[in-house]
Design goal:
This protein is of the alpha/beta class. Helices cover 37% and strands 18% of the residues. The protein contains five helices and ten strands. The longest helix has 29 residues.
């Protein structure tokens, strides 16, 4: 039997990049994976159960999580991956950009956790995995809105870990460095000083393997924080 055989997993931002790779990695271990993302069409696709959801919209999160709990029951694995990324100095960041970053990077995982974790606590088991970033613990220039959001994600992880201690629900924060995903497409890092070339970045599969690792630990073990970095890091010559 596979380690996650028949277990229900929920992955946000799962239509591409890290979210898609994590969904595939969990499915390969036997999990039934509910994918949440704005661009998905509803329905079942192999091991996936797709629920379209604009995670920047609180009402859409309520609808999607209600569907999950009503149709498939309590998840045992929740992977909070959805996010957005910008590169701008603080004084050039428009308030609307800050709001958009906050909505997807902080408010969305807060609301997803708020909706799903009570059922996991009642079941007395499960793991909540947050995909953070180097920017959840290191402040980098021209990265203000994103860094503020990722520090918020780390704070959410720590608050949840404290509030749910002793319930049987475990919490893991995975903080990957620069990862070659479609988020980089409009930013052209290959021609930005101080940035690794895309060929030097982590791959989505590297982060997905970290998700698989923490999700398959036995109930008495927990990976509280996992840092994953490319050999060449942001800000190095």
């Amino acid at each position: 039997m596979k380690p996650l055989e028949g277990r229900l997993a929920v992955v946000t931002g799962a239509s591409r990049g890290i979210g898609l790779a994590a969904s595939e990695a969990l499915a390969a271990e036997g999990a039934v994976v509910v994918r949440l993302a704005r661009s998905l069409a509803p329905g079942a696709r192999g091991p996936f159960r797709d629920v379209p959801c604009d995670l920047a919209d609180p009402a859409a999160i309520v609808r999607a999580t209600t569907t999950i709990l009503g149709e498939w029951g309590t998840p045992e694995i929740v992977v909070q991956n959805a996010g957005t990324f910008t590169l701008k100095p603080l004084d050039a960041t428009d308030p609307a950009e800050l709001d958009a970053s906050y909505a997807l990077n902080v408010r969305a995982p807060f609301l997803v956790a708020q909706a799903l974790l009570p059922a996991m606590r009642a079941a007395g088991r499960g793991i909540h995995v947050t995909i953070g970033s180097t920017c959840d613990h290191v402040a980098l220039p021209e990265n203000g809105a994103y860094t503020v959001g990722k520090y918020g994600v780390r704070a959410l992880h720590e608050v949840l870990s404290a509030e749910y201690r002793g319930t049987g629900v475990r919490f893991s924060l995975i903080s990957p460095g620069a990862t070659d995903t479609p988020l980089w497409d409009p930013l052209d890092p290959d021609h930005r000083p101080g940035f690794p070339r895309r060929a030097e970045m982590l791959r989505a599969g590297d982060v997905a393997e970290a998700v698989r690792f923490v999700a398959t630990r036995p109930p008495h073990a927990n990976v509280d924080w996992l840092r994953l970095s490319p050999v060449r890091r942001l800000g190095t010559p």
